[in-house]
Every structure is written in C-alpha cells, then in structure tokens.
Amino acid sequence: MNEISILVGGKAGDGIRQAGHVIARLLNRIGYRIFFYDDYPSLIRGGHNFSIIRASEKHIVAHKETVDVIVALNQDAVDNHKHRLNTNGIILYDSKKADAEGLGIDFMDIVKKFDGKPIMRNTAAIGALAGILNLEWSVLEKVIMDAVEHEIDLNLQVARQAYDRIETPLKPVSKLNQKPLPLVSGNEAIALGAVKAGLNMYIAYPMTPASAILHYLAAHEKELGVVTVHPESEIGVALMALGAAYAGAKTMVGTSGGGFALMTEALSLAGQGELPMVIVEAQRPGPSTGVPTYTMQGDLSFVVHAGHGEFSRVVLAPGDAEEAFYTTGLALNLAWQFQIPTFVLSDKHLSESIFSVEADLDKVKPENPLLWNEQGEYKRYLDTQNGISPLAFPGNPSAIVKATSYEHDENGITTEEPEAISLMQRKRLRKRKALEKALEQYETVKIYGNPDSKTVLLCWGSTKGACIEVAEALNLKVVQPLLLEPLPIEPLKSALSGADKIIAVEVNATGQLATLISGHGICIDDMILRFDARPFTVDTLLDNVKEVLL
Predict the structure, then answer these.
(1) Architecture of domain 3-165
(2) Partners of 344 in the β-ladder
(3) Taking the complete model, does pTM exceed 0.90, yes or no?
(4) Which residue spans within 221-373 are E strands per DSSP?
(5) Where does 185-363 sit in CATH, by number?
(6) By CB distance 3.0 to 4.6 Å, which of 11, 252, 376, 399 could disulfide with 392?
(7) Arithmetic mean of pLDDT, 327-345
(8) How far is 355 from 60, CA to CA, in rounded Å?
C-alpha cells in the first residue's frame, strides 16, 4: 500500500504547523488521503512542537507512532523522535541546529542568500523534503503560491534552492490516480455543519481547543452570513446565546470543560425556559486547567449530567471531520425542533487535526422549528401531546413572548401550584419520547471491521480511527455510538449482540462510556484506557489490544 508518515519538529515560533500544512497539501495534491496531527505545549515561544502528516492511498482518520521521515529544525526534534523512525527511514535536519544520522542541510544559509527571515527555514526544509520525496517542482510551486500569504516570491526562491540541493530522491513517493480532496480540521467541519443548518450567530470566549471555531467563523463572517461575538466570559457567552435564541436567532457556543463549568447554570435555564442552545464542548485534560493544549475524553459524564433539575438534552460525539460536519448540523436542527440544549462533544484530537473530507454538503439543511400559527391566544409553554410548544418571537404584535427561569404555567406566568408544576414537568419530560422516536431515523451507532467477529472494540469520538485500523489488522469488530444521550440502547445492544468479548477503548482514566452503558445491562469485559493527554495511535493501540487478547 502506498503510504508515508512525516514528522516535522522544532520549537514554537519555527513555523512547524505551517510547514505541516504545506506538506499535507503537497501529498494531497498528488492524490493521497491525509491525516494531520499537531502536538504543541502552551507556549508562544520555545518548548517543543511537532506535527505528523500521514498520507495514504486509503481513507484514514488516525496517525501512527512510527514515521518514515523526520524533518528536524532543532536537536530536540531529533532526540525526542529518532526512536519513532521506521527501518529505512530518514532524518532531514538543519545542520546548524542539530546533529543526526541522516541528511543535514544548512537551512539558514539558504535563507540568508535571499535576505529572508529566520522562520523561512521551514520553507527551505519543505523544499528539501519535496526533493527527497521526488515531487515535481511544479507541484511544490503551486502549493507554496496557494498556502503562503506573504513574500511568496522569496519563499519560492528559498524552496527552489533547497529543492535543488537534493541530487537523489531518498524516499520517493508515487503519484496516485485520485483527485485531491478538501483538507478540513474538525473545528472547521463543526463550523460549516452549523452554517449549513442555518446558524445565525456564534458566541464564544476563546478556549483551546475550541478557539479555532471562533477564529474561522469570524474570518468568514460576511461570506457565511454568521454574526460572531466574543463576550467577556463563558457566563456571558451562555446567557447571550439564550437571549439570542429567545429573539429567534439560531445560536451555537463553543468551549472546553473549564468554560462549560461556568455555563451550567445557564444550561439549566435553557432547560426550564425551553430555549434552543447548541454547545460545542471540545475536551482537554483536567481537572481545572489540566494540560490545556492536549487531548482527553474526560467530560462525557459531566456533559451528560450537567445542570440541576430534570430536562432533556442531546449529546453527539463525532469521530472525524465528516461526522463533525453532519452531527453539528443535526445538533442545531434538533435543538430548535425540541427547544432543548444539544451538545457536540469533541476533543483536541478531533478539533485540531486535519482530515481529507468527502462530505455530501446537501445532506445538511436547515429544518424549521414549530412556529405559532397566530390563531387565538399565544401560550409560550402550551401543553401539547409531544411536549413541544409553538414558537413566537419578540416583535410579533399578536404575541406576548415569555421566557423564565421560574416554574410557570402555559402562558409563562410564575406559579407554585402543585398541579401547574406537575403539568409543566410532564410536558418537558414528554419531549424525550418524541426525541427518541425522531432519532430512530438517524444512524446513531456505527459498525466497522468484521461484523461477525466475537471480539468487539467499543469506542466513541476520536478513538474511532485507530480502532478501525486495529480491527482490520486483527479481524475484529468495531462499534461506535455517535449518540451518547439519549443513549440508543436497542441499536447498541443489537450491534454488540453475539460478542464474547467487549473491549472499551477510551482516552480517560475511568472508562466513562463503559460506565454509562453498563447501567443499561451491557457488560464490558475489558478496558484499554489512555490518560497521558495523548491520543491512541494505530500501532500503540494494536499492541494494547494484542495484550488484552493474549
């Protein structure tokens, strides 16, 4: 199989991520499917940054621990990663900044010839790498012209000089007969899915790893027709979103665990006031600040149970960018259909990684909520058979539109009468049955690998990619629930039926999905848990599964 993995590393400020982006585009341009993983500490300068670009002829949504080429812009990149190098792998390194067994080139010397900036060492490295891979200069030229925003001619000169230094391609790759696909991050897919479903306003306080949603939507505000707002805090974010929803604007907010902790009071307000709200919770390690630029799946229990009182919610957990696009659109539509909070539960590994995407854009469309027909007296909280009350918005001269945190009657008038309280409680909880019925039309549980295998890898979210490849290697079955609340019990039991061994694979320390489904009579036999703030890679998970199966 045609495949190559490249690691580019250096310190923060060396343009490592940008270099990774260009390398990904290069390989995408010649027909490869891409998965791009980015690893960086919470530092603006210094520290150690690296990116892994895995390119394959088949669709992939995970990376491997081992690599074929290391591009090292300093000694740390050599020392930290040389153990990853496959047999016959090569290290391309800056000979003034590092020492290694491999191919050394003085990148700064090349940059100085053209009076370039030190950061252009990454351009020189890319040029040399293109030569090593035996890529045509025209391909590299076009990618640089598309990817670089400033001093394009200078970057082209630097890249060409380094490219010409390579006399023999040491790691040639074949051009594939496949069209390039869009390269999209998980956060971009989330943003675009919401836009396709009719998003009017995105409100967020920046918090890694969700921040890029705000940055992307703000940068494309006019062309996408979405208003972006950056309030003073996560509390302000949630309350502003509820106010916008009350006024009729389809809203979404984005945060991570620490930010969502501040939103939980507003979450309960959404439940009581029956206000639609989409929350993107992009997980990172905790508790508290934790390790802010790394990944974890530690917030599942929190998101499913957050808030006080009893009210319905939806929690969706996509496993790659395509699923992120579809599920975010679904989350927005469900929020407005049922007038409830809905969640897109992501993590750093999904949100900030980049994927080759071939999505059906027409699959996500805005769905209109139930609107008041303007007949008779308007009752904001009208008791209906399915619990869903018709919506009207302020500015309608025929309707008095209430919203309240206090228990209320059908008109939205505060009440403490037992009969009225019971009526509204039953009304709100009645939505759940309607919600569960509506969700039956969607694929809420996915199956991969050998459907007849007696051994199942149970996963959720971004662990999906590594699990699928391990299952293919060992002839196992993978079961991935996309919907985590309300948990699709019957589809899940059907997918797991006949299994002799169910192994839960999660990036947390307690097996939160395993705990969640165990409460519904599904027995988990083993758990493979990773909680060092890093995601599962294909080869490490393969070793983990083999150990469990011994």
Answers:
(1) 3-Layer(aba) Sandwich (3.40)
(2) 280, 316
(3) yes
(4) 227-229, 251-255, 277-283, 314-316, 341-347, 354-356
(5) 3.40.50.970
(6) 399
(7) 98
(8) 8
